[in-house]
Amino acid sequence: MTVDYRQMWKELGLNLENHDALMEVLGKVYAEIFVSQKNRPEKTSYLDFVMSEVHGARIQELVEAKKQGRKVIGTYCTFVPEEIVIAANGIMVGLCAGADFATEEVEKILPKNLCALIKSTFGFKLGGVCPYLEASDLIVGENTCDGKKKAWEVFGNLVKKMYVMDMPQVKTQDGKALLKKEYLKFISQIQELTGNSITVESLRKGIEIVNAKRQAVYRLSKARINNPVPVSGLDSLLINQIFFYEDPIRFTQQINELCDELERRVSEGKGSFPAGTPRILFSGCPMAVPNWKIPAIIETTGGVIVAEESCVGERGTRNLVESTGDTLDSLVDAIVDRYFQIDCAIFSPNQDRLTHIKEMYRKYNADGVVLYGIQFCSPYAVEAIGIEKELEKSGIPATRIETDYSQEDVGQLKTRLQAFIERIAKCPSPQESTSALQQ
Q1: What percent of the chain has pLDDT over 70?
Q2: Coil, strand, or helix at residue 241?
Q3: How many CB atoms sit inside 10 A of residue 435's CB?
Q4: How far apart are CA 410 and CA 335, in angstroms?
Q5: Which of 1, 53, 95, 109 is deepest in the core (most CB within 10 A)?
Q6: What is the spatial distance between Cα 85 and Cα 62, in angstroms, rounded to a whole number?
Q7: How far is the C-alpha of 204 from the C-alpha of 210, rounded, in Å?
Q8: Could you read off the pLDDT of 25-77 as tens digits, one per residue?
Q9: Does the CA dihedral 356-288-120-155 come out positive or negative?
């Protein structure tokens, strides 16, 4: 950062001492993991700039927008429709939850054996180190698991304004009706907060802006199908993470420019990794910044991640919202149709997710699947056991990794992942496994 933002951070209520410590660590980790990568596309300089200003220029934009009367809505989940926020001239940002912080303080109010993501959410608040959280006029929580559902009751006492959205747990017509009911309530809440009415025209515009953002990420995904893969899994993950808090129009433009370069690299046979590098499909829990531990291990021990079946990945970005409706109700139905296809582990049964993983394995020419879970995240941990068995039964190599945000298990994880990568390097190609997939 070339500008001194300390006065802005102070006015937002950040703990400057803690924040300095966080930013120092974040800068070092980013340089070690991302900047040190070889054969990066030139346009990844955009990612470096965004990360260098992650608590600077973007926060300043939010503060300036608030002075002009716009409202900032902070969220933690891919189920919260950005289309609705944009339609009311609001700004939606993803909030901090990807690292341990203020753990001792967190464990005074939450159980020690709660998942790292929820504890991190509290840690960033109690440590006073998340400017996105402090800039938000409304925090939206969502009941995607029992841990979150109960945690929001506590978190609501720590933030200025909290809104909790209920989530269906079954993919039935009743479940879909519940989602629509919740989105209609959310529209009322956002209209009240912003003072702006959502119209057919404004909602259609919101849908088109978010669709364009998803299409840019889809272009990125298509480029990663190639061998050699033109961009690393780490940079691709970072794009999916930035997706949640960067200005959507600028993000779309920049990622499309990056994709122009990736498509040139594909035509020239240039890759970020040599052709033939074992290709990994990464599947499971969401990964917020700066949760890069497992992808960094994979890509420094002989593998490359070619796709993410995750809320911070294809699960969160695939499928567009139909924007041709001519009434508010029809556009809301279209939003519900799209979001109801998210195959989050909250749903039971959740056969769609297994089907999607198999489709992605084939589509991205992957050699194996790493099923990633955050410790004490029951929905994904339980689901992973059955998915691993079904994948192996279909001839798809898979392994389960469960960890937290600490660095204590890095050595053990390296050994396990290296062994898995060596195993899949000896396996038949995905094309040779096609017959097994079709059984």
Answers
A1: 97
A2: helix
A3: 9
A4: 40
A5: 95
A6: 14
A7: 10
A8: 999 999 999 999 999 999 999 999 999 999 999 999 999 999 999 999 999 99
A9: negative
